[in-house]
Amino acid sequence: MTLDKLTIHQPDDWHLHIRDGALMKAVLPSTINVFSRAIIMPNLDPPIRTIQEAIAYKKRILSALSKNNSFTPLMTLYLTNDISTATIEKGFKEGIFHACKLYPANATTNSSYGVTDFDAIENVYKIMESIGMPLLIHGEVTDRDVDIFDREKVFIDRHLSNLLYKHPKLKVVLEHITTEYATEFVQSSNFDLAATITPHHLHINRNAMFEGGLRSDFYCLPVAKRENNRLALRRAATSGKSCFFLGTDSAPHLRKSKKSSCGCAGIFNSTYALESYTQVFDNENSLTNLEKFASINGPEFYGLPLNKKHVTLEKKKHKIPEFISLDLEDGSQEKLVPFHAGEELSWKITKVG
Ligand code: DOR
Ligand code: ZN
Question: How are strands ordered across the β-sheet holding 310-319?
């Protein structure tokens, strides 16, 4: 039987860079019109390192929503070498933080305040383990002598394995996984370990960055890997296994910041994220598992209820624009390139509610 219409519980985005200020206001609609909740990444500049900063950031997000929109931002705390365990405990117990984000220092955009010595924050892992607070990890080593395509695997072998053995009850999400090695590590783990998978890592391999020239629109971190990894990620996402769930890692950078001799890392995909994932599930003959990946596995891991509303998708071809224009608050116009720019997608959201 071929499905051409599908209704699922409303999904959540378990990994999102919504930014701040005018850029946030410009990109917010694409998320809040489809997703009910999102884990908001704290890598602003400067990052979200205190309860007060998280409350203020959440307020800025909420005040940008229209009155009838019930989108819920789930805030996270940016871990540093000297973050206080009192902030972690109080912030989590008071429902301000839903997780802590661990960026290895200098691994990616705005990560210079990140952690330089993973062993030095043992007290952080201990408190998080005892209160049941999820630890979200950008799982790449930053050593310049480790090949960029191997950094995820080396992180798992050098750091993640030990962390899980030392803290067997710690809830961990290995974010935006990119390798077959990571899919196998996560699904065979006996610990409380899950992983998010982005739309772009399901669609592109590393060739995309070099097709006909250097294409920064496909540059993100962790970088896309060889084709066998993309295929493994597709098997993992569409498997329905509870350890894999949706996290777009949508990371908008203005066109001018991408189109540079040192283009920023990040792919802006939230505009058509659900449609993009749906296409993968359709291609893999696994549409019946889309709801687990998009709407069920995430809330189960985070201990949150399923969303009550539903989203309907229909098989209808539509073309993705080359650019999305942004009217910034200062009156200027900017451009963002959405993921799938200029391509055709075969699924369209036709109802949310
Ligand atoms: O490509 C990425 N962009 N990866 C990250 O980890 C951060 C993100 C960003 O904030 O731009
Ligand atoms: Zn991210």
Answer: 5-9, 310-319, 344-352
Amino acid of residue 224: A
| 45 catalytic residue (yes or no) | no
Calculate the average pLDDT of the chain: 96
Residue 236 to residue 292: CA distance in whole angstroms: 12
> What is the number of other CB atoms lying within 10 angstroms of the CB of residue 125?
21
pLDDT at 225: 98
Query: pLDDT (tens digit, 9 = 90+) per residue, 149-164?
Result: 999 999 999 999 999 9
Query: How many of the other CB atoms lie within 10 Å of CB of 196?
Result: 25
Does this model's pTM top 0.90? yes
Ligand 1 pocket test target in 16, 174, 249 with most atoms within 8 Å of CB = 249
Q: How many CB atoms lie within 10 A of CB 28?
A: 20
Contact 123, 167 (CB under 8 A): no
